[in-house]
Design goal:
This protein has three helices and eight strands, in the order E-E-E-E-H-E-E-E-E-H-H. The chain is an alpha+beta fold. The chain has one domain: Nucleoside Triphosphate Pyrophosphohydrolase (Alpha-Beta Complex).
């Protein structure tokens, strides 16, 4: 099973988005996100992936509903920007921009990666379906 985590970082009526450079989704916009590494906390994955893809440091503020996309479980966190320093690896990301929410809603399936899922996340955000971070138990259990 693949676990993917990322952030929806909002500033006013805009969301921080990345334009993908990978072959399977080349040129499509997406929220910054990526695969959880072995032994990594899901919350740390979201922060790390957002930083790696945008150069921005964020603080998680909540979690949106968890979704299943075939073999992947998707965790999308809401986050506030702590330090905005947009930089990115041009081998993986083509662009990083703050995009107006209405513009995202009006993107086509060709423009927005995982269209149905990303629109569902946007709808959950607008309906304030944001849950507390305390649902994640970050305790490390040594007696595995």
């Amino acid at each position: 099973m693949v676990v993917i985590a990322g952030c929806i970082v909002r500033k006013g009526n805009k969301i921080l988005m990345v334009k993908e450079g990978k072959k399977n989704c080349y040129g499509q916009w997406n929220y910054p996100a990526g695969h959880m590494e072995e032994g990594e906390k899901i919350t740390d994955t979201a922060i790390r992936e957002t930083f790696e893809e945008t150069g921005c440091k964020v603080k998680l503020t909540g979690v949106l509903p968890i979704l299943n996309d075939g073999p992947a479980i998707l965790f999308k966190f809401t986050a506030d920007i702590i330090e905005e320093n947009i930089t990115f690896d041009t081998n993986e990301i083509l662009d990083v921009q703050w995009i107006d929410i209405d513009t995202i809603k009006n993107m086509s399936k060709e423009e927005l990666r995982a269209y149905d899922i990303n629109i569902a996340y946007l709808k959950a955000l607008e309906e304030n379906k944001i849950y507390p971070l305390e649902i994640f138990d970050d305790t490390e259990y040594l007696g595995k």
